[in-house]
Amino acid sequence: MATTHVHEYTMAHAADITFEVGYWCCIGMVGILCTDLLFARQFKARYFVCHSMINCIITFLVLPDSYWILTDPLEALQAKSCSMVPLGLVFAIHFYHMIGAFVPIKYGGFKLYYVDWLHHILMVVLGCPAIMFAAMGPSVNLNWLFICGFPGG
Predict the structure, then answer these.
(1) Does the predicted TM-score (pTM) go above 0.85?
(2) I need a labelling partner for 148 at 20 to 30 A (CA). Which of 97, 104, 124, 140 fits?
(3) Residue 80: per-residue pLDDT
(4) DSSP secondary-structure letter at 8?
(5) Strand, coil or helix: what is 79?
(6) Residue 83: phi, psi to the nearest 5?
């Protein structure tokens, strides 16, 4: 699913990006739920199992943009768009965690601490939308490589 190319600083572009990120967020949350129900429930720290798996997927998905920006930075830095799938998955894992806070623990919910809420609100609710609309190109995905992947995101 690729965003049609419209000028990066228009409402049409913002709507396209919002739809694409939302789509991948929903797909990611369904995948995380399946992973949680079928595999991660056997672990005490099941959220971290799900988070680690999503981080691996994000790391794999950002490798082409990361390689491009590292091997041809002048060309790559001129690009204003990149795959929004990794950002959708970042939203997915964090929204999954936040939604789980409203489910009783005996039914599979999560206990979130102050630091969890602080992280989710500052970084995901406020920070990720800023990234989404900034039209920063593949440098966004290079950052995800280090935030979610190496040295151990």
Answers:
(1) yes
(2) 104
(3) 84
(4) T
(5) coil
(6) -65, 130
Q: Which two tokens stand for residue 21?
A: 């990120």
List all residues 6 or more positions away from 15 whose beta carbon is below 8 Å from its beta carbon.
none
What letter does residue 39 receive in the DSSP assignment?
A: T
Please give the Cα distance from 65 to 62 (Å, whole number): 6
Distance CA(133)–CA(107), nearest Å, equals 36
135: left (phi > 0), else alpha (psi -120 to 50), else beta?
left
* Cβ atoms < 10 Å from Cβ of 88: 24
pLDDT of residue 7: 63
Residues in the chain: 153
Q: State how far the alpha carbon of 123 is from the alpha carbons of 9, 61, 94, 113, 119, in Å.
A: 22, 21, 10, 15, 6
Contacts of 135 (CB under 8 A, 6+ apart): 8, 9, 13, 80, 81
